[in-house]
Design a protein that fits this description.
1 helix, alpha+beta, flat, two-stranded antiparallel sheet, 23% helix
Length: 75
């Protein structure tokens, strides 16, 4: 990153450790990227899609269904 003059944006950097629901979870809670400590999240958003650590789509469906419900309620 340094050679390409790139800088890590701490506000937008997230760590997601993917685990299969039938295996024991990985004990990775945080990593260092340079001098910055990045902690693991249960879910992250990338290009408008919610990903969670168990590769389920529950949060994505909830997010999609919430928006039309709010619009309908305001009518």
């Amino acid at each position: 990153m340094t050679t390409n003059k790139l800088k890590l944006n701490n506000d937008k950097t997230e760590l997601l450790v993917l685990n299969a629901s039938y295996l024991l979870p990985t004990m990775l809670n945080s990593i260092y990227a340079g001098t910055e400590l990045i902690t693991a999240s249960k879910s992250v958003k990338n290009i408008g899609v919610l990903f969670d650590n168990l590769v389920l789509i529950d949060k994505q469906i909830t997010s999609i269904c919430k928006s039309p419900f709010i619009i309908y309620r305001n009518l």
